[in-house]
Amino acid sequence: MTLEVAITMRQGAFALDVAFEAPAGITVLFGRSGAGKTSIVNAVAGLARPEAGRIAVDGSVLYDSAAGVNLPPHKRRMGCIFQDARLFPHLTVAQNLAFGRWFSKTGPEQARVVEMLGIGPLMGRRPGALSGGERQRVAIGRALMAGPRMLLADEPLAALDEARKAEILPYFERLRDEMGVPVLYVSHAPAEVARLATTVVALDGGGVLRQGPAAEVLGDPQVMPLGPRAAGSVLEARVVAHHADGLSELDAGGLRLHLPAVRHAEGAALRVHVQAADVMLAIRPPEGISALNVWPAAVRELRMGSGPGAIVRLDAGGQALLARITRRSVEALELAPGREVYAVLKAVSVAPESVA
To answer: Mop domain location, by residue (predicted)?
Structure first.
């Protein structure tokens, strides 16, 4: 199922002009506050009307200014998940799920949704007796029970603390991999994007900077809608071994990557988000250091900032890797495209939520 969006709209001084296609899986609208992410979600849901353009899901037109088509929200069959769960406080979890079913007779079996989200023990409780993470899981379940053609998730984890976010992320992964319902997901958290996204649409100032797979978009030094401090890379890796000292060993395209123990079996395919600020560079093989990850690499591109910083795009064994260093270091190391270097990454610098 494919979502097609090509719209223009104005809200006060803000102008939105975007065009993109979102294939199956989770498509993340990524960018800073005010980039237009929520405006796009509202237009797809039918809560805001564009000035012109077209929105279609799998060929079914939801909005077309030229043809005079503008389906009302209840006919678009969109399941919405917000920052706050918006459950009915006077209903139990089971009754909230049943309300979702009221909108459709063709949604998934309740037992499957309950099992996938791990909410079986919560069925008799009311929202006031649930944690924030539990309420969001129930909200996801209610949206699924309505049998939507697509889910719209507008920063669903923004109101949760880090522990609750870590609790919810695996359920969005299962939703992506098992349910077959496409998701349009809003986020400004790079690690979250790297972990969940099938496709990333990077936005800035009401326009699309770039669209593509997470590794390509997040690894492009020209696409940094949140600024250089948020720059990072996505490494595709596979678990090789778990060691007795609490470290896991991964193979990232021929690169050996050591991390604190990951909760995945040997052979599992993973994504690892590496922040550019955590990557150091050396022109000779470093010796006598505590960092466990040292990889030969080649400089492919330099992006000099307006301040003291610079972003270096590296090719490390076929993997795109970003390093954020100072302009002084660029000059001292005489870095230029083609220069061979060594990339250094401390094992403990990669947080557990950055591996999935």
So the answer is: 288-354
Domain identity same for 199 and 136: yes
CA atoms within 13 A on the CB side of 320: 17
> Domain boundary at 224, 245, 280, which?
224
Query: What pLDDT tens digit does each residue of the chain (356 aa) get?
Result: 789 999 999 988 899 999 999 888 999 999 888 889 999 999 999 999 999 999 999 889 999 999 999 999 989 999 999 888 889 999 999 999 988 777 666 667 888 889 989 999 999 999 999 999 999 999 999 988 888 889 999 999 888 888 888 888 888 888 888 888 889 999 988 888 989 999 999 999 899 999 999 888 888 877 777 777 788 899 999 999 999 999 999 999 888 999 999 989 999 999 999 999 999 999 999 999 999 999 999 999 999 877 899 999 999 988 899 999 999 999 999 999 999 999 999 999 998 888 88
| Residues 314, 339 contacting (CB under 8 angstroms) | no
pTM for this predicted structure:
0.87
